[in-house]
Automatic annotation (TrEMBL):
Stated name of the protein: Ribonuclease P protein subunit p25, putative
GO biological process: tRNA 5'-leader removal
InterPro entries named in the record: Alba-like_dom_sf, Alba-like_NAB, DNA/RNA-bd_Alba-like
Main location: nucleus
Gene Ontology MF annotations: RNA binding
Keywords: Nucleus
Gene: 8235344
Cell compartment(s), UniProt: Nucleus
Record-level GO cellular component terms: nucleus; ribonuclease MRP complex
Chain ranges of the DNA/RNA-binding protein Alba-like domain: 1-51
Family from the record: Belongs to the histone-like Alba family.
Top-rank taxon: Eukaryota
Organism: Pediculus humanus subsp. corporis
Length: 92
């Protein structure tokens, strides 16, 4: 996590915004990194939450069985951190 923050801090020094994306188990880390960066630069934030649809195919061990298809919705978050003021009408 420290390497990501160091990289993002360097990007914020040169640029004006960073987007953090977390998928599944990494949601918490993406939120933590975004909050740390937001506080360091007193920046503005817009967050978007969605689901990624994933299909897993499991081949059977026995030839007479059918292939198992598992469909999952994996939560995803995108967090825009910007030094510039963002649109107040934008939800998130």
């Amino acid at each position: 996590m420290r390497n990501l923050l160091e990289y993002a801090i360097n990007v914020m020094k040169d640029g004006k915004s960073v987007v953090w994306t977390g998928v599944g188990p990494s949601l918490g880390k993406a939120i933590s990194c975004a909050e740390i960066l937001k506080r360091k630069y007193n920046a503005h934030q817009i967050s978007k939450i969605c689901y990624n649809k994933v299909e897993d195919y499991w081949d059977p061990c026995l030839p007479q069985l059918e292939t198992l298809i598992v469909r999952r919705d994996i939560p995803t978050i995108h967090i825009l951190i910007s030094r510039d003021k963002l649109d107040d009408a934008e939800p998130g």
